[in-house]
């Protein structure tokens, strides 16, 4: 079968036939999937068609997540019309199922029996689940401080979990080295695998189907940023295919103050992102200091600027407050990294005086995946089974 896509270096533009490579063989640049032609004939434009005419079947039911209007949040935030893209409703509880499903399909196509991933937790669970489904042996490297909920979820699928001392970057470097030396397929969901982050653009396809008009802003919690870049790429392809009049949404990346290499570069109007040596944040899913691959951050920074978007950082306290607001106002329980989208837009809307805009927040992960902030914040009273004590507490 003649494939409609190829790999292209985002820096030197060298092209490669589809194969399992992780960086440009000429300049070590980031690779992306490009297409020989984009036509309306393949445009059901859903997650299953991220590779266009090569249909990817839904492997565990990933994608097609709800786009919910957050009415109380909209009323509270200057009458902006705010929607939540509920990525925490993917099979393993996070958006990572999209890129992992795409990557697993390629691992099978290329004949691999073993995979490895470096993850802060969500990608680990996803790779473990999809590997179990398709009989692949999976090794998962996570930072030593990864929440127990995420580690145990991955273990339950039968994966080989190994904790690596130090920040996420240590796990990333070790997984890359092992995959290159041992011929094991690397499913790390940064920009290292061009097929995985191609899966992220399915979010844009679905927003297009679920909305009468495209949002003015898409707010994305980011570490390295492949989700943000993938969504932008999806809207760009849709515009090319359909010639839509809607402008491509402004992409707004949100980072934690304790790990903010991309937002720092944006705010200082710098050309290149410099890695964060010592990441510290409760939002582990976006706590990526980019050590050894700061070029990933630069690529995301350039995409944000192309979209006329922005990037800003928020405190852990703002993240916790947003997490509580989503739960108490909207009945939505997300992990700290997912709540960063709301916390970021609250700050952004005040800084830029944004009113009456259409906004989509990427709610990236389920709150059950990281209970540390909840466990520290709440105590539950215990009473005798008598009315007097019950009335005293109600």
From TrEMBL:
SUPFAM superfamilies tied to this protein: Tryptophan synthase beta subunit-like PLP-dependent enzymes
Pfam name, any one: PALP
Keywords attached to this entry: Lyase, Pyridoxal phosphate
All copies of domain Tryptophan synthase beta chain-like PALP, residue ranges: 60-365
One MF term in the entry's GO annotations: threonine synthase activity
Domain of life: Bacteria
Modified residues (N6-(pyridoxal phosphate)lysine): 96
Swiss-Prot/TrEMBL cofactor(s): pyridoxal 5'-phosphate
GO BP field: isoleucine biosynthetic process; L-serine catabolic process; L-threonine catabolic process; threonine biosynthetic process
EC numbers on record: 4.2.3.1
Transferase as UniProt keyword: no
Cell membrane recorded as keyword: no
Family: Belongs to the threonine synthase family.
Protein name: Threonine synthase
